[in-house]
Amino acid sequence: MSALKTQVGIIGAGPAGLLLGHLLHVNGIDSVIVENRSRDYVIDRVRAGVLEQGTVDLLVAMGVGAGLQRRGLRHDGLYISFQGRRHRIDLADLTGGKAITVYGQNEVVRDLIEARTATARPLYFEAACVTVGALDSPNPVIRFRHGDADHEIQCDFIAGCDGFHGICRPSVPAGVLSTYERNYPFGWLGILAEAEPSSDELVYSCHERGFALFSMRSPTVTRLYFQVPPEEPIDNWSDEAIWDEMLERMTTRDGWQPHVGRIIQKGVTPMRSFVAAPMRHGRLFLAGDASHIVPPTGAKGLNLAASDVLVLARAMKAFYGRGRTDWLDEYSDVCVRRVWKAQRFSWWMTATLHRFPDETPFDRQRRIADLDYLTSSRAAMTSLAEQYVGLPAEVSFESAGL
Ligand code: FAD
Ligand code: DHB
After folding, report:
1. CB atoms closer than 10 angstroms to residue 43
2. Which residues neighbour 180 within 8 Å (Cβ) at sequence distance 6 or greater?
3. Residue nearest to atom 4 of ligand 1 (CA)
């Protein structure tokens, strides 16, 4: 058994864990990151693509924004499409110059793993049998197996950044966390295709056959999604059937449609809204998907993970630098306020743009009226724009040592 000590033990090398590790590093705080998957698996996992303005600014301020600034695609607007027409929402004009940047989550994770490796601070991939214990004590522990060796890490704090299916949230004793959940009667079938994007900006389409979304990853790769039943087996969909459905739902009256190309990746993602609070138990702090999930329609999941760890890094910097514990105590309340605003926005985008299997003609007309109002009122567009580019950060970058 090898025994190690660190200041902050981080479970999970997704965006939350890696960002936190780097924010702590910048502040001279030690951490060990423990991830149960392989490096390649973590990097290759295809997930989110939209970074809020604040997430972009954070990555740049942390010194890990070079790839993002070179290859990220800045979008000043997006389209909402319904009844065969695309309506542009000018995000930059409505928010005083803010925008979103399309840069794949796997690129973000790759950049952060490179940055971590350059610091020479520990990052274990393929850790097996990961457990956390003594969460109520001043020295919580992480135990895991790596290769042939058992490890125990004594920490001052543990950050549970291990996603929705991780072990940290279930390690909190029963009765401590309140949970709030909504499941949706659909999921998203998503593809990556070798095709030049046919629009410079995203297109969210509301069609009578259901929702569809046009996005991209690079000047040569298009990313597309459409709504399917929640447990839809991907094998039900041949590539040809996927393209037929995409084109049916996305083509607008002016003839716009995505370019068709070879499908290089496909999968189905279920949709749920979930919040567990408080995001802390003793010396365990939950961050990112470990404590909340949003349906992907508002593109908020990765961005919430980033805002959580900014708040946590501020609290830890103040603890180690000045012995302050009040920001640790406030961590959950500060994050949860933002989480609920993102939950509300994601729920609204989802409910307005998707077709519900049991919806009545009334529901459908109301959804169309919602979209009609949205795309014809500057006030409504401003509300969408300020939430889509991201509400202001809860804490300043300076307070987190940047
Ligand atoms: P994760 O990225 O889940 O990272 C958690 C890490 O912990 C993982 O690397 C995992 O392997 C590791 N881990 C898990 N269990 C253990 C354990 N026991 N021990 C050690 N490590 C462990 N958001 C969008 O905005 N748009 C999208 O299109 C979108 N698509 C998505 C598709 C899928 C399939 C999923 C699951 C999520 C998607 N999201 C999307 C959400 C977004 O990707 C997440 O919000 C984001 O990844 C959250 O980052 P995180 O670090 O909190 O969690
Ligand atoms: C992408 C994903 C989203 O969930 C979204 O709302 C917009 C774009 C994407 O993968 O590019």
Report:
1. 15
2. 273, 274, 275, 276, 277
3. 14
Using alpha carbons, list the distances in angstroms from residue 28 to 22, 23, 24, 209, 385.
Answer: 10, 9, 6, 53, 37
Helix, strand, or coil here: 160? strand
Residue 75 falls in the annotated catalytic set: yes
Q: Please, what's the largest Cα pairwise distance for the chain?
A: 67
Instruction: Confirm if 79 and 215 have CB atoms less than 8 A apart.
Output: no
Cis link prior to 173 (omega < 30° from 0)? no
Residue 344: what are its φ and ψ, rounded to 5°?
-60, -45
Contact between 326 and 314 (Cβ < 8 Å) = no
What tokens appear for 49 in the block? 């693509």
Average pLDDT over residues 123-144: 98
First to last CA, the chain: 37
Counting ligands in written order, the one closest to the CA of 187 is 1
Catalytic residue among 103, 184, 204, 225: 204
Nearest bound ligand to CA 291? 1
Q: What is the pLDDT at residue 1? A: 83
Residues 252-276, mean pLDDT to the nearest whole number: 97
Whole-angstrom Cα distance, residue 68 to residue 56? Answer: 8
- What span, in angstroms and rounded, lies between the C-alpha atoms of 248 and 245? 5
Strands 78-82 and 203-207 turn out to be parallel
Short-list 292, 23, 5, CA closest to 158: 5
- pLDDT band for 283, please (50, 70, 90 cuts): very high
> Can you tell me the distance from the alpha carbon of 258 to that of 136, in angstroms, rounded to the nearest whole number?
53
For 313, which DSSP code?
H
